[in-house]
Specification:
Layout lengths: L16 E10 L3 E9 L3 E6 L5 E7 L5 E3 L7 H6 L7 E2 L5 E2 L3 E4 L2 E4 L8 E2 L12 E5 L2 E8 L10 E10 L2 E10 L3 E2 L3 E2 L17 E4 L3 E2 L13 E2 L11 E2 H5 L8 E5 L10 E8 L4 E7 L3 E5 L8 E2 L5 E2 L6 E5 L14 E2 L5 E11 L1
Amino acid sequence: MKKKAAGCERLRSEMTQVSRQQWGEAVGLGPVDLWVLQSSQVRVEVLTLGAIIRSVCSRGKDGQMEDVVLGYDDLEGYVSDKRYLGAVVGRVANRIARGRFVLEGKEYQLDINNGPNALHGGLRGFNKAIWHGTAVEGGVQLSLTSPDGDQGYPGEVQVSVSYTLQGERLTAEYQARSTKATPINLTNHSYFNLAGQGAADIYDHAVSISAQSYLPVDDSSIPTGEIRRVDGTPFDLRKPVLIGPQLKEVPGPGFDHNFCLSSPGDPWTERHAARVCHPASGRVLEVSTSQPGVQFYTANFLDGSMTGKGGSRYGKHSSFCLETQNWPDAVNQVSFPDCVLRPGEDYKHVTRFTFTAV
């Protein structure tokens, strides 16, 4: 089937339309499908490779549709990608210190793929797997079996993520079960620019994050264990601030920190997490989640070497991520929310992305 262009054409239907087409063949992995979810306000493309959100087209205040998610024009871009563009990452999102943890008296050693640490599930995490897609009401459910020992993790894990679109809201629902106790922490790693993917930077975006505390990190980006109040720090984003000036106040190359949306032991509930507005276009992204944290990342390690959609070069601070998740290195930090999934238990989390214009 011939590949369609990444369409941001005007949308018509009030209902969400769901369609599927083959998008290509990933060498050594198999065929990859492209699913399209289309409402009257938003159009979303999803790949079965990595459960990747390939595009999100949303309206500005002028009524024009723009694709606000970074990505690639072809499958090869995603197969060779090393920055997790749009992908579901797992088995454990974010960093595990030194790639080691002890569970039920046994020490596990993971591959080291980020300085001295393990990042986003390993060398071949969930972002490089082909998921099985099934149509559901208003969207697609993607499922995957991660075998016992996958990337060094214990237990066979059955995992699924459902993307459903209702009007202006995209919902991601994550579920998992395991045959052995294993750490698990799933998120989507989409990079957003509300001016449109390919815009030079996000300095003119305003961000707010509903967090009273954040996690300071060491020089390899592992949380120190301290849960620090945001008051009087550049991490106080409870009221909207422009990202450009705020980046000048943050130590290091930019934001790459976990903001605490709840405390360990708090009950499971959905909470407002973040809001980002691009005043020039009027586009707004709001994020809510059941997860206890959100990693706010300002694309500090994109360096212009990647060629994205339409020949765009994605540079430092060209986009932002709001990775809803458990706190980083939770498997090694007893004061953090528990990230271990045990046999007979259900892992279940939800994140909602709402795209509007003001």
